[in-house]
Give the backbone structure.
Amino acid sequence: MKIIFTSGTLVNNINQLKHFRPHLLGITWLVLFGITCSSTSLKAQETSRYTLEQVIRLAQDQSPDAQIARHRFKSSYWTFRNFKAEYLPGLTLNGTLPNINRSIEAITLPDGTSNYTSRSLTNYEVSLSISQEVGFTGGRVFLSTGLQQLNNYYTDTTTSQFLANMINIGIEQPLFRYNRYKWDKKTAPMQYEEAKRALVEANENVASVAVSRFFSLLIAQLEKEISLKNRSNYDTLYRIAQGRFQLGKIAENELLQLELNLLQADASVEDAELNYESSISEFRSYLRLKDDVPVELIPPDVIEHFVIPADRAIEAAKSNSSEWIALQRRLIVAESSVNEAKMTGRFDANLYAILGLTQTSTELRDAYNNPLDEERVTLGITVPILDWGKARGAIKLAQSNQELEVASVEQERVDYVQNIFVNIMRFNMQKNQLRIAAKSDTVAQKRYDLTQKRYMIGKVNDILDLSMAQIDNDNAKVGYYRALMTYWQSYYQVRKLTLFDFLKNEPINVPFEDLTR
């Protein structure tokens, strides 16, 4: 026998099958319990519930801002790696395979006369060299070895000759030139450290944005629930008022006020629904969530409140923040610009020297026998005679820019410390603000419940009292969650400015090694 249970025929089927009643009742309750459990389980699977901590972790992992920050850090990392690679030895293989020359060229004869003659030759060359930049002096040292072969076809008999440069040791050293490596060695590590700190700050800034998205949606959900509840309450009150008006217990003005409140409640529901859809769209977009998954937010608890000493926060910021190290780097860059201006356009000299062993022969094996010494030394100088004050003007300009940069950095340091102080004071007073908001919510709720009950039994005749109680109650509830949002935003702003977790009493870090693989 096949039994179909539907919402409209369930009772009839049971009554018709009374002889199966003991068994069917048990089966029915089992089926209904199973359906209820399945519906609850399906709903739990379809609805994603998030706490504030989960939202922050999601944002720091997959939000657009977090991904952009990681890519910026990777760029800074490889820039620093390239800088360090400049100070490592470089091995280079050079080759010319071949160089063919068939042309008519002018040559000088032994008697001093010149003549045009046909030339036909090929030249092969290969060399291997290793070089090393010397950052302290700004020069370069190198070690090389090479082999050349020259084939002449200008006579009936082809002649070949080998030139072996067995080993060459050389140096190229500017004597009075601006040393870029010296200054880069100071600023490049600072830039990389600045990038690391900026990544941590970006991570904390993402957390702050996630807090805003979380509470914006949470408040939108609350306002939507409040608007629906208010519409239901005003609808009930309006129906009661209609009955009282017909009995002559209330004036028409009060009935019209309730009707106006009901219309305003309908409009508030539409505004709240629109605000909710906008908030959840921004929430899903920032966290890269699927659009078809319902979202439920769990209001956060306030962590154990603690007071941060301002002087301790300022010291932590100076030790950890990217802005403080950036201010120090700017002073070094300004000093470097002055040094560059002083060393450019003035007396300059360049030393180039090579010491090696070389030999030539028509046979390859003989080219490596009995090597001869090879020495080459070149000292070039540059002496500006007249530049119409160009070099002096460049120095004065660089010095003026340095003084301006020093003044700007000093002012920015003062503003930076003041900004930290203000944010610390704002965070420290959040405990009292939250206490006031929570107490206001409790008082407003009690007042509204009392006023509504008194109005329902006719002890409060003025509808304006009920309206004001409802408005104050709604504002107090929303105000409490806004106070919570301000607390958490202030908390993560302090973390961002100081890069220090005062709750755990340790600096904030991220796994940089995982980002550089």
